[in-house]
Give the backbone structure.
Amino acid sequence: MLPVYICEDEEKIRNAERAWLEKQILIEGLDMEIALCTGSPEELLEYLSGQQKQGIYFLDVELKGASMDGFRLGQEIRKKDARGFLVYVTAFQDLAFETFRYHLEALDYICKKNPEKMYAGLSHCLKVIAERVSREQGEQQEYFTVRTLDVVRHIPLEEILYFATAGRTHRIELHARRERLDFIGSIQELEKKLAPKFVRVHRAYLVRGDEIDRVNLKTREVILKNGERCPFSRNMKQRLLDSVGS
Amino acid sequence: MIEILGSYGDLLSELYLYGRIFDLRVASELRQYLFWMFGIRPGCLLLCGLVIVKSGMGKIYRQWLEQEKIHRGILVLLGLYPVYCEAIDHVVKDPGKNRAYLLLPLILLLVIHMIFVYVGRDCQQKQYILAQEANLRQQTIYIEKMEQIQAEGDMKAVQSFIREMTEDFDRQAGDQIRLLNQLANVHMAEIKGLLLEKLALMQKEDIYCELEVLRPFEGTRMRSTDLCRCLGILMDNAADEVRGKENAKIHLMISSQDGCTTFRIKNTLYNTADFQKIGTAGYTTKGEGRGIGLESYRKLLEKYDFVFPFTAVQDGYFVQELKIQEV
C-alpha cells in the first residue's frame, strides 16, 4: 500500500485535499492510504526517517512560516525516498515547474486557486501514479545510473550504444539512442561493471555487443546497427569475429 | 610578470648581502649565509607573493586576460624584461649598480600595475555601461509590451466576448510579466543582454519562449564570451527548429544552486534528426551551408574540464543542457 503525505500550511486547503484524496482512493479502489497530513515540513521529514516505502507527496510550494520552502523540502524528501512521487500544490500559476521537474523529478503541479481545478488535478495525479506503479511492477528493465554534478540520471541499459573516452582526463562520453552526455568515470571500471553485455573493442571504446552489426577488417572498425562506427584494436579482432559470427 | 616579482624578491633579499662577503670556512659567517639563503630569501619571495595577493594584482591580471583584445604593447613591455636587465648590466658600471638593479623591477612593477589598473577600470566601466544598456533595453521592452497589451485590451474591449477577452488578456499580461520577473533573476549583464536580444527576436517572429530562473543567477566560472556564444548557438538552433511551426515552444531554464549552474534549452522537435550525427562537422537539417553551430559549440566546450554537456530527445522535445561546476 502506497502511503500518501500532505504538507500544506493552510489548514482549510490541507483538510480539503485530505478529504478529496480519501474519497478518490475509496471510489477508485486504489492501493493507497493517507499516512500523514501536516503543515510542518519537519514533522514530515521526521516521520519519513522511519519509513522505507515509496510514497506519494502533495506539497505546498510556499509553506509560510516554515523553516524551508517546498523546493527544499522536496530535496530533503528525495534523500529519503528517491523513487517517491512529488506533486506540488501551489497558488502560483507561473511556478517554475521545469526547474522542479529537473531537480526533483516532480510529477506535476496543481494550482490551488480554483477548487474545481485543484480537485481535478488531484484525481488526475492519483490516476497517473496508479498507472505508473502498475507498469513499473511488470517492468524488468535494467538501468545504468550516472551522476553528473547535481543530477542523477537512470538510462535504460538497452538504450546505450557505447561509451568512449573523451580525450580529457576521466571524461567519458555516453552515446545512447536518444541521449548523449559527458560524465566523470573510468572506462576500466565500466568494463568490469558492464561485462559481458558491453565489449571493450578499443582502449577508448566500450560497445554494447548486441548493437554490433558488422566488422570492417580493412578500416578496422565495428559498425553499429545505426550506422555509427567505432575503431577496434588488433588484439580484439578474433574475439569480435567470433561474437559477430555467433 | 612572475620573473619581475621573483627577481624583485631576490634583490630585496640581497639588501641583506649588500657590501658583505662571506667566508664560508668561518662557522659564524656560514651560519649567516645559510640564514640568508633559507630564511631571508624565501621570506622576501613570500612577501612579494603576499603583496600580489593583497594588492589584488591577480584579479586585475585575470581581468586583463579576459579581454578579447590583448594589448600587444603590454605583452612586448613584459616580454622585454630580460633585455632591460641585460642592458642595465652593460650600461651601469658603477659600484652602486645593485641599487639600479633594485630600482628597475620596482619601476616596471609600478608601471605594469598602473597599466593593469587603468585597463581594469576601463573594462569595469564598459561592463557597467553594458549592464545599464541591458537594463534600458529591458525597460524599453517592458514599456513596449505594456503598450501592446494595452492596445490589444482596447481592441478587444469592443468585442462582445468580454469573458474570453479578459482571460486572453490576463494570460498575455501574465506571460510578459512572468518573463520579466524571471529575467530579473539574471544578474550577469552579458547573459541578460543576450537573453533580451534573443527573446525580443523570438517575439518578433512569434516564437513562444518560456524562461525559468528560480534562484538568482549571479555569474559563472566559464568565460563570459564563450558562454554567450554557446547559449547563442543553442538558442538560435532552437529558434531555427520551431520557426513557422504550429504549437511550437522553446523553454529555457537557468538553475544556479548547490555549486553548479545549469542551462537547459528545449524545443519542440519537428525534424527527425539523426541523433548520432548531431554535432558532427557539416551535419544539418537546415540545408546546405549550415550545420556548423553545434560543431563549434562542441569545440568551444572542449577546453573546459568543468563543463558537462548533455543532449537528448525527450518526449518530443530536443533538449540541450550545459552544466557548469562552480566549486
